[in-house]
Amino acid sequence: MPNIPILYEDNHLLVVIKAAGIPAQADDSGDPDMLSLLKEYVRINEGKKGQAFLGLVHRLDRPVSGLMVFAKTSKAASRLSDQIRRRYLRRDYIALCHGKPDSENGVFIDYLTKKPQEGKVRATGADDGVRAELSYKLLWRDAEQDRSLLYIRLDTGRRHQIRAQLALRDLPILGDYRYSAMTAADQELASPALHAAGLGLDHPTKKEKIYFFSSPLYNDSFSSVSGEIMQEVLIAARKNGLLPGEESSYTQIIKTWRC
User: Fold this and answer.
1) Over the range 47-81, which residues count as b (16 or more CB within 10 Å of their CB) and which as e?
2) Rounded Cα distance, 226 and 231, in Å
3) Is position 92 annotated as part of the catalytic site?
4) What does the longest C-alpha to C-alpha distance in the chain come to?
5) Which residue in 22, 107, 167, 211 has the fewest CB atoms around it within 10 Å?
């Protein structure tokens, strides 16, 4: 069981990095999940005698790594949930995929099935599905291996959304066992090369805008992108306004919960 890095914590919020392969909440597998593990962390850290309150306000697919925010109070849970309903919560992802998009930036809009069919979310008509929208920017291209590093911002949050929408355009994420053809390169990876890298929100009580960032290199599935290239890519993304500057973002791990 990997340790859980914590980027931010106060009386209302807990922002952590989820490792690939850990469920966001309890599921049929019975495996340790983020919500249960962090409830125990809060209970121990704050010396609570009974079970600690911790609100799950958004989810992240089990195979996907990256930032998650949890609410430590009911007030925070309500206000964060409202930000999600209003599509105010900012969610930035970085993906390493096969192929190259038709243009360097754009918007993908599809209607997807509400529930997976044989483990996959599929495209369907507007009357039968839910609207899925994201915008993307090509960050870096590996022509030799025919791979692209994409910055993605979600407008909607649907199950498997990024994985399904990229696959629909012949841009399957490297290592995605559900949506890629599982080439030899895919089979070498334990999880998809998809990382929830950025998270922006209004603090539920301070009314301050805060932004968190976690490098995709936290996920081993990005190992084919060198640290030097990734650093250059992220610096360029900040210069181009895709990401807030480091000085205005929470990027440092303040502690680690040893599960």
Assistant:
1) eeeeebebbbbbbbbbbbbbbbbbbbbeebbebbb
2) 9
3) no
4) 57
5) 107
Residue 13: count other Cβ atoms within 10 Å of its Cβ.
21
Task: Name which of 227, 194, 228, 196 is nearest 213 in CA terms.
Answer: 196
| E-only strand ranges, 99-183 | 105-112, 130-142, 147-154
Q: All domains of the chain, ordered by start, with CATH? A: 4-257 (3.30.2350.10)
Q: pLDDT truncated to tens, each residue of the chain (259 aa)?
A: 679 999 999 999 999 999 999 999 999 898 999 999 999 999 999 999 888 999 999 999 999 999 999 999 999 999 999 999 999 999 999 999 999 999 999 999 999 998 888 889 999 999 999 999 999 999 999 999 999 999 999 999 999 999 999 999 999 999 999 999 999 999 999 999 999 999 999 999 998 999 999 999 999 999 999 999 999 999 999 999 999 998 899 999 999 999 8
Is residue 218 within 8 A of residue 17, CB to CB? The reply is: yes
pTM: predicted TM-score of the whole model, two decimal places: 0.96
With vertex at residue 192, the alpha carbon angle to CA 106 and CA 117, rounded to the nearest 5 degrees, is 85
Considering the candidates 61, 110, 176, 186, report the single residue annotated as catalytic.
Answer: 61
Cβ neighbours of residue 187 closer than 8 Å, sequence gap 6 or more: none
Closest CA to 65 of 209, 158, 162, 148: 162
Token pair listed for 57: 């306000």
Which residue in the block uniquely carries the two structure tokens 């483990």?
Answer: 119
Residue 9 · residue 256 · CB < 8 Å: no
